[in-house]
From TrEMBL:
It holds the Pfam family Inositol_P. It catalyses: a myo-inositol phosphate + H2O = myo-inositol + phosphate. This is inositol-phosphate phosphatase. It comes from Streptomyces musisoli. Keywords: Hydrolase, Magnesium, Metal-binding.
Length: 281
């Protein structure tokens, strides 16, 4: 059981560097040595040919689970691979203990194909609120961090998304067609309209980082797995952006969201994209 001997803010003030070190070490030990060196037996399918998992995913998550749990006694870890093995693990997001949400390799398909567009995502959540996040693009040696109320940073430099340049088409990264149902494709098709330039997304974590950097105007996603979204949504918020579901409410990592949803570099863009998605639903 979690005993609150210090606040989460106090923990972060004391241990943020330790969390960063744990993320970097997991990537250095389990992910980077396998990048562009994966053997066939190190890659498996989960739900289908587009849903891949590798030994790097499994072993990095095990290492992060141990290290993050040790840093914050009484916390629990909700990792993508642990939930795949036992869906009941996801219920920890509904509890009172602090939760580490972990995606060891976000963008596994890119990783398998030798593309450097993958990252490790870690978010610290307490009672449904994302408090802090770490987005580490190991192959690019880029680390983005955010703490609620304290801003978003990339390699120590403050991120400000800012509004889009007036008069140009909004670039929106959307759920990749390989991962969407017919109904989801129909809803997202509303974004193929004048003034928008949609494209399929890559790693969700890196797309969120692009929004936070002001390099991408918005994302529009049709699924709600917390490990894909928690870290990036806080990064976008702390860079001045916003996120909305079809109900007009922000996305909740605890689930029950009206989908699809959007995250954008400013509130006006979020409302515009959400409005188009809503009209098609």
């Amino acid at each position: 059981m979690f005993e609150e001997t210090e606040t989460i803010d106090e923990f972060l003030a004391r241990c943020s560097a330790d969390v960063e070190e744990a993320v970097r070490k997991a990537a250095a030990a389990e992910i980077l040595p396998r990048f562009r060196r994966l053997a066939a037996h190190e890659v498996d399918q989960k739900s289908g040919p587009h849903d891949l998992v590798t030994d790097a995913d499994r072993l990095a998550e095990l290492r992060l689970t141990e290290d993050l749990g040790s840093l914050l006694p009484g916390s629990v870890v909700v990792g993508e691979e642990a939930v795949h093995a036992d869906p009941a693990v996801y219920q920890a997001l509904q509890g009172d203990a602090p939760v580490w949400i972990v995606d060891p390799v976000d963008g596994t398909r890119q990783f398998v194909h030798g593309d450097d567009g993958f990252c490790t995502l870690v978010a610290l959540v307490h009672r449904g609120v994302v408090i802090a996040s770490w987005t580490y693009a190991a192959a690019r040696d880029q680390l983005a961090t955010a703490v609620r109320g304290r801003g978003a940073f990339l390699d120590g430099e403050r991120l400000f998304a800012g509004p889009p340049e007036p008069g140009r088409d909004l670039v929106v990264a959307t759920s990749h067609p390989d991962y969407t149902t017919d109904d989801q494709k129909r809803a997202l098709r509303a974004l193929w309209t004048d003034g928008l330039a949609p494209r399929p997304c890559g790693s969700a974590g890196l797309e969120y980082l692009a929004v936070a950097r002001g390099e991408l105007d918005a994302v529009a996603f049709s699924w709600e797995a917390a490990w894909d979204h928690a870290a990036g949504l806080l990064l976008v918020e702390e860079a001045g952006g916003a996120h909305l579901t079809l109900s007009g409410e922000p996305f909740r990592v605890t689930g029950g969201n009206a989908l699809p949803f959007t995250a954008a570099r400013d509130a006006a863009t979020a409302r515009r994209v959400a409005g188009l998605l809503n009209a098609a639903s």
